Amino acid sequence: MKKYIDTGKKDTRSGFGAGLEELGKKNENVVALCADLTGSLKMDAFKNNHPERFFQVGIAEANMIGMAAGMTIGGKIPFTGTFANFSTGRVYDQIRQSVAYSGKNVKICASHAGLTLGEDGATHQILEDLGLMKMLPGMTVINTCDYNQTKAATLAIAEHDGPVYLRFGRPKVANFTPEDQNFEIGKAVQLTEGNDVTIVATGHLVWEALQAAETLAEEGITAEVINIHTIKPLDADAIIASVKKTGCVVTAEEHNYLGGLGESVARVLSTEYPNPQEFIATKDTFGESGTPEQLMEKYGLNAKSIVAASKKVIQRK
Amino acid sequence: MRKQILNHTTMANTTQLEDFVMQVRRDILRQVHKVNSGHPGGSLGCAEFFTALYQEVMDYTTDFTMDGKNEDLFFLSNGHISPVFYSVLARSGFFPVDELNTFRLIDSRLQGHPTTHENLPGVRIASGSLGQGMSVAIGAAQTKKLNKDKHLVYSLHGDGELQEGQNWEAIMYAAGNQVDNLIATVDLNGQQIDGSTDRVLPLGNLKDKFEAFGWEVLEVKNGNNITEVIQGLQDAKEKTGQGKPVCILLHTVMGNGVDFMMHTHEWHGKAPNDEQLEKALAQNPETLGDY
Fold first, then answer.
1. What 3-state class would DSSP assign to A213?
2. Of A107, A114, A277, B278, whose CB has the highest number of CB atoms within 10 Å?
3. Rounded to a whole number, what is the distance in Å from the CA of A27 to chain B's nearest CA?
4. Domain ranges for chain B
């Protein structure tokens, strides 16, 4: 089985910051808006190097989304930055009408997604954002797995004409994808080959899935790990092709199992190639305060849970 | 083509503009009557404002591009008054006047509330869910500055719409960031769906509020007098470029031009029946020709 090396833990939000700064140099139409979280979103480099294209809107996310929609008129490519909770739930109607329905080329970039925001607790730990965003017609939804991929995705979405939701997180997580990767929106990345189970993961759970695959391999179970960085449009062909080989699937995400990646995969399989599926996700619950590791353990979002789910789904074949 | 404007000779021009307004009122009434739905009250109250903007004040082209570079832009925030917007866009040359026949019908570009989704020329943002247009206008105004485009951005908002909190985020932003290429007009008709704004949720002294936020505020006492509206808009233009966003408080009468629709919220979102239409049209004779 192919092994992946963590080149040193890094936060995905810094990947966004690095990508945005590079875009600032490369593309003069890129502008950035932030709602009083410049440091948290790692937007300082862009702000300092391109002050005329950086818009501090204050703690006013609704206005930020509306302004971003307006800024596209005249050819700008706005990137908005705040926490995932304030990027989605707080401004859903603004995104729905002014961005998605209006077809505006706005990039909604969201950090601190999910439980691993940690100690701040449930008010800030959104576990519903992927569902909210994927339901909007025309919205592209991306959840990257590590620093390198987040940087690559940030560069790629500037080239994509249309609204995008880019989700990443707060903690430092394993950085294992290539630094020079070509990020292709909507294209799954198969990381390992296997015959017994397909593990479709998104965000930093991709690394957990790889750890799970190594554990399973020690027990003679081969897992095919697929990195689904794009939740919408979903790479249905890649998923179906793998499940045709393995006959079962585990989906893994830091999100509610209602509305997330797992449901998207279930929809594809139920209509195209029905087979057993297990869900690694939060089970219709809010989060709570704690360290990221503690929360991943308590809510069953780590390699250990993926191993257990894989064994269970294989039994159900 | 660059905008189709009427002849510029002061007196004759006023008469022609008044004729234009009269025809717009007929268009509004006939659009909502045909589909027995839509919002005639606020539309009628703003016929002079739209006529002034598109026939006199704004510099624009009907060769529509979404980017709208090197032309003035207009954003309608209170999208429910789409009948007046559609009538004036059509009669200013953005799309065929006959298309007003399709208002709110299936497969029409003239959706109940304006949208970019059907590629209707003249519309640059969807609106209808209230309170979002000022933010959009501010964004477009900031892009104009980045593009070194000296043209202005205009927007229109209902007075009841100011109850939406997003407006006040936008109002604070625009003043704090010297968005002085924006003229936001508030249609002060004092009415909303459930009654007068004073009864539903009082707006207080809007002039004081906008000024306290750091805006330049002008009032047009009779927003249903075309000459006064044009003068108000011209005065507002003079105030742009001086570090402050500009607000026009436009006093209008909801349902203006149809005696039984005036000064009441009853016709905010109700269409006239056949008899009422006949009566209303009799008060607003055909001028430029019905579609």
1. helix
2. A114
3. 14
4. 10-282
Q: What angle do CA B58, B155, A97 make, to 5 degrees?
A: 130
Per-residue pLDDT at B57: 97
- Summarize pLDDT for A147-171 with one digit per residue, the tens: 999 999 999 999 999 999 999 999 9
CB atoms within 10 A of CB B212: 11
Based on the fold, state whether residues A16 and A158 are members of the same structural domain: yes
Taking contacts as CB-CB distances below 8 angstroms, the residues of chain B near A68 are 139
- Residues 6 or more apart whose CB falls under 8 angstroms from that of A209 comprise A191, A199, A201, A223, A225, A252, A303, A306
Which domain range does residue A46 map to? 10-173
User: Which of B78, B111, B142 should we substitute to test contact with A (largest number of A Cβ atoms within 10 Å)?
Assistant: B142
**A101: nearest CB among B117, B131, B149:** B117
Give the catalytic positions of A in this structure: 61
Last residue of a domain, one of A173, A199, A224: A173
Check CB contact of A93 with chain B, cutoff 8 Å.
Answer: yes
**CA atoms of A118 and A256, how far apart (whole Å):** 16
Q: What is the mean pLDDT of residues B205-226?
A: 98
Minimal Cα–Cα distance from B112 to chain A, Å? 14
Neighbouring C-beta atoms of residue B208, cutoff 10 Å: 10
A23, A163: one domain = yes
Q: Which residue of A has its CA nearest to B116?
A: A102
Mean confidence (pLDDT) of chain B? 96
A:B CB pairs within 8 Å: 121
Regions of chain A where pLDDT drops below 50: none
* pLDDT tens digits along B115-129: 999 999 999 999 999
- Give me the architecture of the B10-282 domain, per CATH: 3-Layer(aba) Sandwich (3.40)
Rounded-to-10 torsion of CA A221, A227, A233, A236: -20
Query: Phi, psi at residue A80, to the nearest 5°?
Result: -100, 145
Whether pLDDT at B26 is above 60: yes
Complex ipTM: 0.96
Flag if B140 and A71 touch (Cβ within 8 Å). yes
CB of B289 less than 8 A from some CB of A = no
Residue A3 lies inside a defined structural domain of this protein: no
- Say if A152 is an interface residue toward chain B (CB within 8 Å): no
Counting the structural domains of chain A, the total is 2
A85 and A227 belong to one structural domain? no
Calculate mean pLDDT across residues B204-231: 98
> Do A106 and A203 share a structural domain?
no
Residues A43 and A158 in one domain: yes
pLDDT tens digits for range B156-176: 999 999 999 999 999 999 999
Preferred mutation among B60, B67, B132 to probe A, highest tally of A CBs within 10 A: B132
Residues in chain A closer than 8 A to B114 (CB atoms): none
Residue B149 touches partner A, C-beta closer than 8 Å: yes
Query: Of A127, A144, A173, which residue is a domain's last?
Result: A173
Q: Are residues A142 and A42 in the same domain?
A: yes
Report yes or no on A264 lying in a domain: yes
Residue B117 in contact with partner chain A when CB distance is under 8 A: yes
A51: exposed, middle or buried (C-beta count within 10 Å: 0-12, 13-18, 19+)? Answer: exposed
